[in-house]
Design goal:
This protein has 257 residues and is of the alpha/beta class. Helix content is 47%, strand content 13%. The chain is built from 10 helices and 5 strands; from the N terminus they run αβααβααβααβαβαα. The chain has helices at residues 2-24, 54-57, 67-77, 101-106, 108-112, 123-132, 139-163, 188-203, 234-250, 252-256, and strands at residues 44-52, 82-91, 116-120, 168-172, 209-212. A 5-stranded parallel sheet has the order 2-1-3-4-5, sandwiched between helices. Helix 8 (188-203) links the parallel strand 4 and strand 5 (209-212). Helix 3 (67-77) crosses helix 9 (234-250) and helix 7 (139-163) runs parallel beside helix 8. The radius of gyration is 33 Å and the shape is globular. It starts with a helix and ends with a helix.
């Protein structure tokens, strides 16, 4: 009996030590599996302000969709990060570069809250040279006016940046609608190219600016012009809006982040 009793006591003691070990020693923590999910940025409301001449106004658009600006809106609105796109269109037919400063001054509030500022200007400046010197047109006259245009554009960019340091500014370049109306100036394509180059130089001095070249779109493409042979038609505006959209898409982080 004593031997059996001793074995029982030893067994109980060992069992107690095992229990103590199980309780006293902390369990090895199991590695928690946490599913990492990136927080999706909230959709953004985009406010677009369009400045400029008849191309901004949409003159010649036989479908009444608002020219390139109106066609650009659904393209931007389809972006995942964009919730709404609102537009303030300040384009006016016949407007030249020297007439934009008062427009900027009169619409400071709209410009301050703009995410995108679209601009078409210069076509009427070129046309003014044509009208003023129709009988003695020369490459030199266009070149002289190009420098003056660049100075006015520079002052305009300064005013826009004072009003809004952060908005993306998009300048749509000039195209040549004069190939059939001005056959006596074969250098007109070079004139337009030089004006566009001058505009690009000006924009390069400012951050968050985009120059959109559309000259090639209308080269030998009279079917893209309105019957006035100056403004784009609906198909022409469609081409411009697509080109502007692709340019913005390449810099998407500027306007949707």
């Amino acid at each position: 009996m004593k031997r059996w009793g001793l074995m029982i006591i030893v067994s109980l003691f060992l069992a107690g030590c095992t229990a103590f070990s199980a309780v006293g020693q902390p369990e090895q923590p199991q590695e928690a599996v946490v599913k990492q999910t990136e927080a999706k940025p909230l959709p953004k409301d985009i406010h677009l302000v369009a400045l400029g001449d008849s191309l901004t106004e949409g003159v010649g658009d036989g479908e009444g969709k608002g020219g390139y600006v109106g066609r650009l809106v659904p393209l931007l609105a389809a972006e995942d990060r964009v919730r709404t796109v609102t537009v303030t269109n300040l384009g006016k037919r016949g407007r030249r570069s020297g007439e934009l400063e008062p427009v900027v001054d009169a619409h400071q509030g709209e410009l301050k809250r703009a995410d995108l500022i679209l601009l078409t200007i210069g076509g009427n400046d070129v046309m003014n040279v044509v009208r003023s010197h129709f009988f003695d047109l020369s490459y030199e006259r266009f070149a002289k006016e190009s420098k003056l245009f660049a100075d006015r554009l520079d002052h305009l960019l300064i005013s826009l940046r004072i009003a809004n340091p952060d908005a993306v500014i998009v300048l749509v370049g000039l195209y040549n609608p004069f190939s059939t109306t001005l056959p006596n100036i074969p250098e007109i394509d070079d004139v337009i190219a030089e004006w566009n180059k001058a505009s690009q130089v000006v924009l390069s001095r400012y951050d968050r600016t985009i120059f959109v070249d559309i000259q090639d779109i209308f080269t030998d493409r009279d079917e893209l012009l309105h019957r006035d042979e100056f403004h784009p038609n609906a198909a022409g505006y469609e081409q411009i809006s697509t080109r502007v959209y692709h340019a913005l898409n390449e810099q998407k982080e500027w306007w949707v982040n």
